[in-house]
Design a protein that fits this description.
Elements lengths: L2 H8 L2 E2 L9 E2 L9 E4 L16 E5 L13 E5 L2 H12 L21 E2 L4 E2 L4 E2 L4 E2 L4 E2 L4 E2 L4 E2 L4 E2 L4 E2 L4 E2 L4 E2 L4 E4 L4 E3 L5 E3 L5 E4 L4 E2 L4 E3 L5 E4 L4 E2 L4 E2 L4 E2 L4 E2 L4 E2 L4 E2 L4 E2 L4 E2 L4 E2 L4 E2 L4 E2 L9 E3 L4 E2 H40 L1
Parallel strand pairs: 2-3, 3-4, 4-5, 6-9, 7-10, 8-11, 9-12, 10-13, 11-14, 12-15, 13-16, 14-17, 15-20, 16-21, 17-22, 20-23, 21-24, 22-25, 23-26, 24-27, 25-28, 26-29, 27-30, 28-31, 29-32, 30-33, 31-34, 33-35
Antiparallel strand pairs: 1-5, 18-19, 35-36
Length: about 350
């Protein structure tokens, strides 16, 4: 692909040779002649004076320095990261995981409703009354329980299970091994010390444009709905418990866990291994640092929290700073204890004179 084609794709200009042949995309640290890369984080700007890339996508406030390779063209755009993603897709267009049609080993009952241009892989099983929207793709080994709804243009990768009654919107992507609608964790203690299972009779609703990673579990509600709202993205290995509601355009990193009946607002950013206890209310645009423990509601929007138990970021950093100094503080306390003990001995000796 010529650099000029990339400029047309991005609606951008550059200060180099537009006829340069671009062969691949690469990280700025590894790029060589024939590569195009990008810089969106200021800490990587230093690589501009070291790279041999033929072109680098940068923001409009980045200008050429005398230390840069004269053969490296700067492609200036409003958002380097988004522009680089467009170039990445141009070089690596997504491949459809399934051939057209329905595999002969798929089990589809007469009561199921299948839209147009649906692709269904080998050993897929649909329950009674399922509805699958147009252009949906159900990869090998997918299982849909009775009365499941799958929206148009939704993609379920191999071995995804959607339990009975759950509803998926349009353009949903769910990766391998994930289960939607498993029973919520509900057990009532009995007098003899054993537990009685609480029936889990609700459903899960996944709204449009949600993506859920591999090996996640989203539990059905005890009653009513567990709901993941439009545009939210979940990483791998995430647990969402019964009756949780996650707001629009929230992103959650791997190994996070959300306990039952907690509501999370829109635009939240939740780091890896964050644990959120049950029956909480989390406001909009909240950020939670990795491994934070959220044990009470956060009703003020827009804050950043860190630590376990989590505190507002500035307070958490102060606490962390003290923890780092604990070995020195311990040594100081021991030294003071020794001095105090010595002074007390001297005072006792003076009293006896």
């Amino acid at each position: 692909m010529k650099l000029r084609d990339i400029l047309v794709l991005l609606g951008a200009q550059c200060d180099g040779d537009e006829n340069t042949q671009i062969q691949r995309v690469a990280k700025i640290e590894e790029a060589v002649a024939g590569d195009i890369s990008f810089v969106s984080n200021k800490k990587y700007v230093k690589f501009l004076s070291e790279t041999n890339a033929s072109a680098v996508i940068v923001s409009k406030d980045v200008t050429r320095s005398s230390h840069m390779n004269k053969n490296t063209a700067l492609v200036q755009v409003d958002d380097p990261y988004v522009s680089f993603l467009k170039v990445l897709v141009a070089f690596h267009p997504p491949k459809d995981p399934l051939p057209p049609g329905i595999h002969p080993t798929a089990i589809i009952p007469p009561s199921a409703s299948i839209g147009t241009e649906v692709r269904i892989g080998a050993y897929v099983v649909l329950g009674n009354g399922c509805v699958v929207g147009s252009n949906a793709r159900l990869c090998h080994g997918v299982v849909l329980g009775d009365e499941v709804t799958v929206g148009a243009n939704t993609l379920l990768y191999p071995n995804v299970t959607i339990r009975e009654g759950c509803r998926l919107g349009d353009r949903v992507i769910i990766h391998s091994g994930t289960t939607i609608g498993s029973d919520g964790f509900g057990f009532a203690p009995k007098g003899d010390g054993s537990y009685e299972k609480i029936p889990q009779v609700g459903i899960v609703v996944i709204e449009d444009d949600v993506e859920i990673g591999a090996n996640c579990t989203v539990d059905r509600a005890t009653m009513g709905e567990t709901r993941i709202k439009k545009g939210t993205k979940l990483d791998n290995l995430i647990q969402v418990a019964h009756n949780v509601v996650i707001g629009e355009n929230t992103v959650i990193a791997a190994q996070a866990g959300i306990s039952g009946s907690t509501t999370i607002g829109s635009g939240a950013m939740i780091g890896g291994q964050v644990g959120i206890t049950g029956h909480l209310e989390i406001s909009d645009n909240i950020k939670m640092g990795a491994q934070s423990g959220i044990h009470r509601s956060i009703r003020e929007p827009g804050g950043t929290y860190f630590g376990s138990p989590a505190l507002p970021h500035r307070e958490a950093m102060k606490v962390h700073g003290v923890i780092v100094q604990l070995p020195e503080l311990r040594a100081t306390v021991r030294e003071l204890e020794t001095k105090v003990q010595s002074l007390l001995q001297e005072i006792e000796a003076l009293k006896k004179k």
